[in-house]
Design a protein that fits this description.
By secondary structure, the protein is of the alpha/beta class. It is 25% helix and 29% strand. It contains ten helices and 19 strands. The mean pLDDT is 95.
């Protein structure tokens, strides 16, 4: 089968990869569509020493697996866990000590004709949700994780920093809570997608120092972190949603003096993400900037790394 293979920070399109054979408890999924995200780009820059097929945002059709899933479109949670370690036993399986992670840690990913995942990771896609939209389930779930970690009230003043793919999804999921939300970025055209949904937006000069209860940093760079930090009142909460390829310097003393709560946030719940997509409460179509066949995957990656580009999708050619 074909796949986009990463090795020693170099990408290649391979056509000689064997179709995977599912282990006990796993399903074989024929991939229909997959999205390139910032984590994929960071992996090519050495964020984590991964070799193998990239990709973790996908929609596919189950070809081998339990009868209730056969021939159905599915999305999949990316952490394959052991179920036995202390984290699994305590209900925190996304931190499983023995986990593999689709396209990220010791498990070939979704930029290929086929992939394997545990059956328990798979979620059927509602019939009326288009395949392209369902491809966003994983990042929408990641955005929803914030609400699993932080109790949001309607009177909370919340700042989202970043108008990239993740920032736009985080903003839409937070808007559903009715909080007092402001989203800042650098691109008027991207922010316009949120303004059309009634969400307040602006640039960095719209941020009032020490005024927000919660800041969500979605840029993955030092400038975004600095803006998110200065916006927080004492005893505010700073949520970090982005992976950082480089080192981040911060003023630890100010975090102590202001008693800031710092929260890392990544994987989230799939069922409510699918529900939001099914209900039209999150609009992902404006985020799709390009579509490529898998055979043009290297060109797709080059496009995805172009400044200002949002989501680039890979469409499989396996029928």
């Amino acid at each position: 089968m074909k796949g986009i293979w990463l090795e020693n920070k170099q990408l290649q399109l391979r056509t000689d990869i064997p179709i995977p054979e599912p282990s006990s408890g796993e399903a074989l999924v024929r991939v229909l569509c997959a999205g390139i995200c910032n984590t994929d780009l960071e992996l090519t820059r050495g964020y984590y020493p991964y070799n193998g097929i990239l990709g973790h945002e996908f929609v596919g059709v189950v070809e081998q697996g339990p009868e209730h899933l056969l021939n159905r479109r599915v999305v999949g949670e990316i952490n394959a866990v052991c179920g036995q370690c202390r984290f699994c036993r305590s209900g925190n399986s996304t931190h499983c000590e023995n986990r593999t992670v689709l396209g990220i840690v010791n498990r070939n990913g979704a930029f290929a004709d086929y992939l394997c995942l545990p059956v328990e990771n798979l979620h059927p896609v509602p019939e009326h949700v288009p395949t392209e939209a369902a491809t966003f389930t994983e990042p929408v779930a990641a955005a929803l994780e914030i609400q699993q970690q932080v109790a949001l009230r309607p009177d909370d003043r919340v700042l989202v920093v970043g108008d990239g793919k993740l920032g736009l999804l985080v903003a839409q999921t937070l808007a559903v809570t009715g909080c007092d939300l402001l989203v800042i970025g650098r691109h008027r055209d991207k922010l316009a997608n949120l303004e059309a949904r009634g969400i307040k937006t602006g640039f960095a000069d719209a941020v009032t120092d020490r005024a927000c209860d919660i800041s969500v940093e979605c840029t993955g760079n030092a400038q975004g972190f600095a803006i998110a930090r200065r916006a927080l009142r004492p005893r505010g909460t700073l949520v970090l949603k982005s992976t950082y390829a480089g080192k981040l310097s911060l003023d630890a003393s100010s975090l102590v003096v202001d008693e800031i709560t710092l929260i890392g946030s990544r994987c989230g719940p799939f069922p409510p993400a699918l529900a939001l997509l099914a209900q039209g409460k999150v609009d992902v179509q404006p985020l799709i900037h390009a579509r490529y066949p898998l055979s043009k995957g290297l060109a797709a990656f080059a496009h995805a790394q172009t400044k200002g580009v949002l989501k680039v999708l890979l469409e499989m050619e396996n029928g």
